[in-house]
Amino acid sequence: MKKTIKNIGLDVHKNSISIGIADDGRDGEVRYYGKIDNDMNQLNKVIRKLISKGAVLRFVYEAGPCGYGIYRYLTSNAFDCAVVAPSKIPQQSGNRLKNDKRDCLSLARLHRAGELTPVYVPTEEDEALRDLVRARGDATRALRTAKQQLSAFLLRHDIIYSGKTKWTKAHFNWLARVAMPYPAQQIVFQEYIDTVTDCINRVQRLTEQIRLQSQQSSRYELIKALQSMRGISLIVAATIAAELGDLTRFENPGKLMAFLGLIPSEHSSGERVKKGSITKTGNGHVRRALVEAAHAYRFPARKSRTIRKRQEDLPKGVIDISWKAQCRLCSRYHYLTAKEKKVNVVKTAIAREIAGFSWAIAKELSRAA
């Protein structure tokens, strides 16, 4: 006897899970099962009850702040489960009602129809490295804020540094000699300096941990190979590897570019073709890292001592791809600049091609393995 398929939509929150069920078939029943606590034991009771009726269960829920715990629990127990992108869930323009019950029923119905786009779920090892990389990003932003606050404080009191570059050893020595006229202001000034120093030390600690953890990661070969390209340092390479995992899961580089939101948006109809700014969908962490890396291609192509050191012991195919990328992208950067394109537009165009060459390097590594 053929088993019935039940599509289970889960609307997951911190303290609760709302469950909707859509029976297989175009006219299958769609019903609300109820709400349970966000607890694996309670979810397991629901699963056992549904399985006892001889059904095959297919689960789906939205990606969100609660992470991938439910996905890993279900897949480890041999259940089919998909985590979908909230931004790509079809929405009715006239529907003004939204609540947990409607959300879980909509997920179950759309999953049955095959209208949902699943997201990539990282392995636990990749997620751990990703958390480390993102923590460094948070620390870097905190450092930037601390520097701005200290600079604003000094400017407000007309204390101007005469040197060329800030945040160097000479600049910190100068800060140590500055004295404020009132004790209260001196305390504030010292607190700002200590905050900057603490943030710098925090960024350095996290950078060192990324270096050590990358060496122990299963993505180490990819991280090492990506650093053969200009502009891709340890942090950028670790960000790409931790956020995207296996780059070869994309059929071609164009799909990787689209996933990162680096392709132009489009609103065309009939003979009218209109393209706009990039879509900015997908993983923003990698997109920002690639745009920063693109800035390095404003200089002429050359293999610096640093790049040659990074390329030691790498396959010749990877080295050839990185040199081809550098020759093309340096030339393209100057070509687009000569056409008086805006700097951000130029860097975005270069970042899009860096993503393509990164895919080619990952593909070369898989062939060489």
Summary, kept brief:
The chain is an alpha/beta fold.
* Number of structural domains: 3
Structural class: alpha/beta
Report the order of strands and helices: EEEHEHEHHHHHHHEEHHHH
Shape: globular
| Euclidean distance between termini CA atoms | 45 Å
What fraction strand? Answer: 5-15%
Radius of gyration: 26 Å
Mean of pLDDT = 94
Helix content: 40-55%
Major sheet: size, sense and barrel closure?
A: 5 strands, mixed
Main-sheet strand order equals 3-2-1-4-5
Query: Which residue ranges are poorly predicted, with pLDDT under 50 across at least 5 consecutive positions?
Result: none
Number of strands: 7
Show the helix and strand layout.
Blueprint: E1 4-12, E2 16-23, E3 30-37, H1 40-51, E4 55-62, H2 69-76, E5 80-84, H3 100-113, H4 124-156, H5 169-177, H6 183-216, H7 220-226, H8 234-244, H9 253-259, E6 264-266, E7 275-278, H10 284-294, H11 305-310, H12 316-338, H13 343-368
Parallel strand pairs: 1-4, 4-5
Antiparallel strand pairs: 1-2, 2-3, 6-7
Helix pairs in contact: 4-6, 4-8, 7-8, 7-13, 8-10, 9-13, 10-13, 12-13
